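Hypothesis: this fold can be encoded by more than one sequence.
Test: take the structure tokens below, design a sequence, compare later.
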């Protein structure tokens, strides 16, 4: 293992460091992925490969300031302002600092991104990526309202070095700019990527900026919110708190909201529960938040499901409690479970091994739409989550006329009746009891579906479009 580490350092120092910045990043990313596959113990777990591949270049170098320059500073202190005395604010030794030359790549990245955007822009939506997830669906829906219903010229900018398979779902008139790999190659400690994004937004001067789960977008608002606000209306979308493996809050509401609130025209939310917490915890005015209900899809049928198999579908990420799902399937060996999904958020994946070991669980991969996975043999949809806003997949399940079994967390009770939700949210027995009652009682299934349809009735595209600022 020491030999491999030494070889990696040698290649990095004598070969990779001599390549252009963008090529350096691609080479480092390939090396990280090879190490992850063949020597996983060499790399920290839970850290995305895209972060490990960034070259943490040395900071600015320094050297003593020439004597003549020091003398000029003394003269300014005597003739202009004593506060300019070099010893007062530079300490005992006066030094000059040289900006690393490679940071010039930031300018090149800015001009390449600027050149890739055609014509004037009315709205920019910043996302980390576009893939399976509720925030991604939200961003796509926003682009549809702005581009198709309001005839705005829209750019969707992805800011993380990750694939965006859902970019094909954007309206044809929307420009999609994959900036993540370019941004990831830049000077990390100085976070030049945020400066590039900020400059791009200021120069584009769109009428509206929407930040949807983009770190670069939130950082741009925190660092340059006054400049952005002077040229554009600035909006952010928030759905719920996020938590790390120690159950400590780590979402943008926790890390950025209080500092950025003064620069935001509104925060778009999909539930009331989170808003009450943020107002109480961060002292943000309640008037800043704007409730926008995500629209439900078209109904997939008018009859109540009568099958006996259980359907689970979602992201294979830590938030979705695959551990709870495995315990639940183990508790119900007489029931057959169809489980669909894929890990989405880098570094947040959950182990599938407990599910693979269960004979009554059939694992499937990624799905393009809920309509393609729901079958006539499914009798109930089960949703597990540790925290949440208002999950859009529940709208899909309701539209498919499947009775839903879900925990009472986050904003789910804004859509489903609280008395129908599982509480406490990690109770295997409460989940199992509700599933068995729904599968065994047609009348209860019919009532649950009727209640869900009533909740769906007001979630139209027209209502969504009118609520978006």
């Amino acid at each position: 293992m020491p030999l491999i580490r030494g070889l990696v350092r040698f290649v990095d120092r004598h070969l990779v460091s001599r390549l252009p910045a963008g090529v350096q990043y691609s080479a480092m990313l390939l090396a990280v992925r090879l190490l992850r596959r063949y020597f996983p113990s060499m790399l920290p777990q839970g850290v995305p490969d895209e972060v490990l591949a960034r070259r943490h270049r040395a900071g600015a170098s320094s050297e003593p300031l020439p004597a003549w320059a020091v003398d000029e500073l003394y003269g300014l202190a005597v003739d202009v302002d004593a506060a300019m005395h070099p010893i007062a604010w530079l300490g005992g030794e006066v030094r000059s600092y040289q900006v690393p030359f490679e940071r010039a790549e930031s300018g090149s990245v800015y001009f390449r991104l600027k050149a890739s955007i055609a014509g004037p822009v009315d709205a920019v939506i910043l996302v980390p990526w576009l893939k399976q997830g509720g925030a991604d669906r939200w961003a796509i829906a926003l682009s549809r309202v702005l581009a198709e219903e309001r005839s705005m010229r829209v750019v969707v900018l992805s800011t993380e070095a990750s694939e965006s398979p859902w970019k094909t779902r954007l309206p044809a008139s929307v420009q999609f700019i994959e900036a993540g790999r370019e941004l990831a190659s830049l000077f990390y400690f100085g976070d030049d990527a945020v400066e590039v994004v900020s400059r791009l937004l200021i120069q584009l001067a769109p009428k509206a900026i929407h930040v949807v789960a983009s770190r670069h977008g939130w950082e741009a608002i925190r660092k340059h919110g006054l400049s952005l606000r002077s040229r554009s209306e600035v909006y952010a979308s928030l759905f719920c708190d996020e938590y790390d493996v120690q159950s400590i809050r780590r979402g943008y509401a926790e890390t950025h909201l209080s500092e950025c609130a003064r620069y935001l025209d509104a925060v778009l939310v999909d539930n009331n529960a989170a808003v009450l917490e943020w107002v109480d915890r961060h002292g943000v005015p309640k008037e800043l938040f704007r409730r926008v209900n995500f629209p439900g899809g078209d109904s997939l049928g008018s009859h109540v499901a009568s099958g006996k198999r259980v359907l689970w579908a979602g992201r294979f990420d830590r938030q979705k409690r695959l551990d709870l799902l495995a315990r639940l399937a183990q508790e119900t060996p007489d029931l057959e479970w169809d489980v669909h999904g894929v890990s989405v958020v880098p570094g947040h994946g959950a182990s599938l091994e407990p599910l693979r070991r269960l004979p009554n669980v059939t694992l499937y991969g990624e799905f393009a739409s809920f309509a393609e996975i729901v079958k006539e043999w499914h009798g109930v949809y089960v949703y597990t989550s540790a925290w949440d806003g208002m999950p859009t997949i529940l709208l899909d399940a309701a539209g498919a006329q499947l009775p839903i079994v879900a925990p009472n967390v986050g904003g789910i009770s804004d859509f489903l009746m609280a008395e129908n939700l599982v509480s406490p949210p990690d109770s295997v027995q409460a989940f199992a009891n509700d599933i068995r009652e729904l599968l065994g009682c047609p009348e209860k299934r019919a009532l649950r579906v009727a209640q869900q349809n009533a909740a769906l009735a007001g979630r139209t595209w027209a209502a969504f479009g009118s609520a978006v600022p």
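The first strand starts at residue 61 and ends at 64. The two ends are 56 Å apart (CA to CA).
Hypothesis status: open.
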